[in-house]
Amino acid sequence: MPQQLDVVLTKAGRTKIRYPAEVLADDGARISVLAAWAAPGVRDFGFVRFEPGDEFTEHYWRDRWYAVKEVRDGRGTLKGWYCDITRPAVVRDGATGPAELTVEDLDLDLWVSADGSQVLRLDEDEFAASGLADHDPDAARQARSALDTLERLAKEGALPALLTA
């Protein structure tokens, strides 16, 4: 198992962002990595701010249609969980280049605040506009089902347990 890899988030066949991460664990189904906030500057969503110094413990599955990112500020205080709806992760070992973990972003997201008081479905308009339901209806069904599953787990307070199971 590589100690470091690049996380590559793609969207519509293009690389959206690439950043380095430290591999924390890989059980063959789920790979967990630690990464710093990789985008330039601050991103203020209104309900949470991601900024330099934030750390993301990211969990990706090779057999599930989502990734869950536990977000902490520079002091280690939990901000919450940002959940990306994606195709299952693909990990390339790096035999012919840097090790990579690649996921395709399917536009849907879920935000869960640290205290659980906010469970917000995000970007449903982008998902509808993407045309995924027309050109890959099975993937669109998988994406909606993944979002529904994560929302249910969050409302039940069970999202943290998903990450330690």
Rounded average pLDDT: 94
Main beta sheet, described?
7 strands, mixed, barrel
Shape, please?
Answer: globular
Number of DSSP E strands: 11
Distance between the termini: 20 Å
Q: Widest sheet: strand order?
A: 1-2-3-6-7-8-10
Q: What is the CATH architecture assignment? A: Beta Barrel
What percent of residues are in strands?
A: over 45%
Q: How many individual helices? A: 4
Computed over alpha carbons, the radius of gyration is 15 Å
Question: Care to describe what's here?
Answer:
The protein is an alpha+beta fold. It has one domain: FomD-like (FomD barrel-like fold, Beta Barrel). Helix content is 22%, strand content 46%. It is built from four helices and eleven strands, in the order βββββββββββαααα. It has helices at residues 124-130, 132-135, 137-155, 159-164; strands at residues 4-11, 14-26, 30-36, 43-44, 49-50, 55-61, 66-72, 78-86, 90-92, 100-113, 119-122. The strands form two sheets. Strands 1-2-3-6-7-8-10 form a seven-stranded mixed β-barrel. A two-stranded antiparallel ribbon has the order 4-5. β2 and β3 form a beta hairpin. The mean pLDDT is 94. It comes from Streptomyces ramulosus. Residues 47-157 form the DUF402 domain. It holds the Pfam family DUF402.
